[in-house]
Specification:
With 234 residues, the protein is an alpha/beta fold. It contains 8 helices and 8 strands; from the N terminus they run H-E-H-E-H-E-H-E-H-E-H-E-H-E-H-E. It has one domain: Rossmann fold (3-Layer(aba) Sandwich), CATH 3.40.50. Helix 1 crosses helix 4 and helix 3 runs parallel beside helix 4. It catalyses: guanosine(46) in tRNA + S-adenosyl-L-methionine = N(7)-methylguanosine(46) in tRNA + S-adenosyl-L-homocysteine.
Length: 234
Amino acid sequence: MQPVAPAHQIRSFKPRRGRITPGQQRALDTLAAAYVLPVGNVPLDPVAVYGRAAPLVLEIGFGMGETTAAMADADRDRDVLAVDVHTPGVGALLAEVSARGLSNVRIVSGDAVEVLRHMVAPGALDEVRVFFPDPWPKSRHHKRRLVGPAFAALVAARLRPGGRVHCATDWAPYARQMLAVLSAEPALEVVGGGFAPRPEWRPVTRFEQQGIAKGHEVFDVIAVRRSAPAAQPE
């Protein structure tokens, strides 16, 4: 019988191979030093990273970066830490950041759970966004879904009081899991007690468009960090 890997070692993502375009490679070559942060084991200092004190948003899984850049452009008073493992997507987001002249975006290419655990201080985040994560639809793969109890507890510990976590998916079973998990986390309160209307400010992502084309319903779940402190996960 094979031993079961600890929850923190079960990856919620699978590496995706894709051809890097010349433009993406140029962006990686010329812009990564300024905008891509190395994976680290100590909490980052947002003032040192962004050059100012501002609310910090963590976005997990930005795909090709179009919507991430659009949201950062429309909300320049907040800083964005965007995390993904797809190299072409990193290059594409870098190109968008440069084209839009965004100074409020930084990127980490790595496991978002490890970034949350090691690179973000407790109470440092204004918002966590998880838009259209891999639904891992097969039953045997459900353990790989990102939004589970341990993740909810970790997110709650990293949010400031009043900060929020915003999840969206077009996979109904995963939406129900998201709602149940965030509702069960004592440090979080689900806005409205159920699914939320789609906010007008959230652009339609590429994955969302694919789901809509297949006739899928889209679900948003938003939860707010309660004022009372939550126990910090180990």
